Amino acid sequence: RYTSFSGSTGTLIASGSLTAVNSQATAERLMAYAEIAGVPVLAVQSTGDSHVSLYDVTDPANPQLLATANNTTSSNANANGTGQVVWGDIVGKTATLYAMNTNNGIQAFTVTVPEPATLGLLALVLAAAGRRGRRA
User: What is the spatial order of strands in the sheet that 106-112 belongs to?
Assistant: First the structure.
């Protein structure tokens, strides 16, 4: 939801839809936001199958899918729908993203945002950082 607040009054401005731009957006519940090289990026993880999606939210009412990836080798049930997504270090155009889906381990990604072109963001590369999730 994209809202504005004045004192104790909130106003809904618009509602963006992740499923409108990403057919895999089912069960995407865990979220983390960061600005990487001036690009506002929303990372969202699915509690259903552990995939991680990245969205450009320059216009919050019209999010744009940048990339989707999954480092897990299996998908165990997460009946509670719990976990966490956290941005780590951000240096220039590169950031580290950690994503944990309960019962499925922790994923780590290196996210690199190229310089934006005049007509907008050209691409976003989501690459496995060579680190795999571990399960106890």
Answer: 83-91, 94-101, 106-112, 125-128
Would residue 25 be called left, alpha or beta, if left means φ above 0 and alpha means ψ between -120 and 50 degrees? alpha
Give the C-alpha distances (Å, rounded to integers) separating 47 from 3, 19, 120.
Answer: 26, 15, 31
Question: Rounded to two decimals, what is the model's pTM?
Answer: 0.75
CA dist., res. 79 & res. 31, Å (int): 18
DSSP 115: P
8-17 long-range Cβ contacts below 8 angstroms, 24+ apart: 13/61, 14/60, 14/61, 15/61, 16/57, 16/59, 16/60, 16/61, 16/62, 16/63, 17/63
pLDDT in tens, 4-37: 889 999 998 877 667 666 766 677 889 999 999 9
